[in-house]
Write a structure and sequence with these properties.
The chain is mostly helical. Helix content is 48%, strand content 6%.
Amino acid sequence: MLDSLPAIPLWVVADKGYASNAMRERIWDMGARPAIPAKRRDGPVACPKWAYRCRHLVENLWARLKEWRAVATRYEKTATSFLAVIHIAAAADWIKF
């Protein structure tokens, strides 16, 4: 997914499932900063708490999008159709707020 971004982001925020040195190096190599906390078994890494705390905004958006049955069940057959449903759901969510 990192390769398909339209522009280089300032930060890449991910949860502990992506906490590996290889992933962090890849993010640094593309010119962004990783905000990925370390797993319990790993040593501490520099992860700004303010950037990671804002991650809940994205999680909340996905929770609201999954209220749509077509998004939650991936009802659409093709990736293009599924992306269209996500766009419609996001636009409806944006209008609602």
